[in-house]
Amino acid sequence: MKNIPVIRTASVIDAPEVSRLLRSAMLTYCADSGISSSLLEAMTESVDSVADRILRQTCLIALLDGKIIGTVCIKTVNNPLVYSFSDKTYDFLRSSCCGSYISRFAVAESYRKTGIGIDLITRAMDYARASGSDMVLLHSAASNDRMVDFYAKRGFDLIDSENSRGYMRGLFANKLVK
Q: Pairing state of beta strands 58-64 and 6-9?
């Protein structure tokens, strides 16, 4: 019988393995996006900063046979306007009272296209609803067609983009249905 992955909240003890997974997945993300790995802060994070994020946010991990094969972090944002960088973004976000923000989404290469990523994003969206959020936001390279398509299939729309980090970074939003 095939083993089924377990999704649970990460603990600080998971930080070294989460850090390794993030670095590996971000290398693929950079290659798929056509951007230099030096432009991603996730590539320079220490294990301590990953541990700190695990303490401050809700970080989920997918485990299979005791090995971390996926991760996603989500935090509640009481003022989604902090992500506004243009009039277009401001107009979209100003009607939101409380949002959530997804970051550090990664799936081990050998487990991509198995549903693990869908399960992690679904759990993050469930968390956002339960926390009272009316929308979920995330950033992703607008040039990464695979990720843009993945997010679109999960109800995310590209609402704006900017180039402050040296590459075209899209802000994606999913307005949650209560």
A: antiparallel
Query: Has this prediction a pTM greater than 0.85?
Result: yes
For 83-142, what is each residue's pLDDT tens digit?
Answer: 888 888 888 888 888 899 999 999 999 999 999 999 999 999 999 999 999 999 999 999
Q: Which domains are seen in the chain, by residue range?
A: 6-175 (3.40.630.30)
Which helix (DSSP H) or strand (DSSP E) does residue 123 occupy? helix 116-130
